Amino acid sequence: MRKISVAHSPDADDIFMYYAIKFGWVTPKDAVFENIADDIESLNQATINGVYDICAISFALYPFVKDDYALLKTAVSFGNGYGPKLVKKKDVRLKKNFKVALSGEFTTNALLFKIAYPDARVTYMNFLEIEQAVLDGVVDAGVLIHESILTFDDSLEVERELWDIWQELAGKELPLPLGGMCLRRSIPLTHAIDYENTLIKAVKVANKNKHILSDMLIERGLIRVDAPTLDKYLDLYANDDSIELSELQYEALDKLYELGFKHGFYENLIKSREFLIPSEYEELRAK
User: Fold this and answer.
1) What is the b/e burial string over 6-28, where b = at least 16 CB atoms within 10 angstroms of the residue's CB?
2) Domains of the chain
3) Cβ contacts of 158 within 8 Å, gap of 6 or more
4) Which of 26, 63, 97, 277 has its CA 20 to 30 A from that of 184?
5) 287: β partners
6) Cβ contacts of residue 124 below 8 Å, gap of 6+?
7) Residue 286 scores a pLDDT above 60
8) How large is the average pLDDT for residues 234-263?
9) Contact of 163 with 151, CB cutoff 8 Å
10) How far apart are CA 143 and CA 285, in angstroms?
11) In what order do the strands lie in the sheet with 99-102?
């Protein structure tokens, strides 16, 4: 049995979308998935260094790793009217060059923030530390991600929604691309197709059995939030739109990469569909 390393973040939506495999509800063919959980920027850096076979990444990272990893069309997280939040202490006025904490250099929120606030002084830290850094005055503001967008301290207020920044930059209402998964290109194509299909099935099964799976995750202490917050969070980021990329989501990804190229963050302009696993090979091979 081949052992395939699958890395995902420890936040609720990634765990939810993967654990149908961990709990044995869905199993890959002729392979064993070994899962690793780490914060998203650590996973971004690990993907740059080619550490894992399959890895969750920020969508903004993908153009940097496209030659070594194929983009998967499942286990995706998009914002739709919501997303990361730029927060500060109440009644604080931010200067043009305010100091801000972001969750990582290659995160999608960092890309959009730096386009919108080119004069801000950026520092990077683990996403779990950002709220406290703002409260302690270590930074003037911070961009909150994951579950913290629902649970931040009452003494903080939202300066700006990343969703609003995205809509302004995109020029039309598109879902906000946040995170997805990628797969090492050196994996044989037939195996790669099997692995992606396994992940697609896992997300489908998770969504279909949402309440059962959520209860199991909470009972085992795998989630940082309580049941009502988990339900709300999964409604945002792990839902029917997470199973397979839609036409609108492809358009949103292409707009993200266009913006990154236009503002000098990427050397080349890419189109997301050109970097998927060619799953049609399986059908052609069967003919």
Assistant:
1) bbbbebbbbbbbbbbbbbebbeb
2) 2-78+177-286 (3.40.190.10), 85-170 (3.40.190.10)
3) 85, 86, 87
4) 26
5) none
6) 41, 101, 102, 103, 104, 105, 110
7) no
8) 94
9) no
10) 47
11) 121-124, 99-102, 141-144, 85-89, 156-161
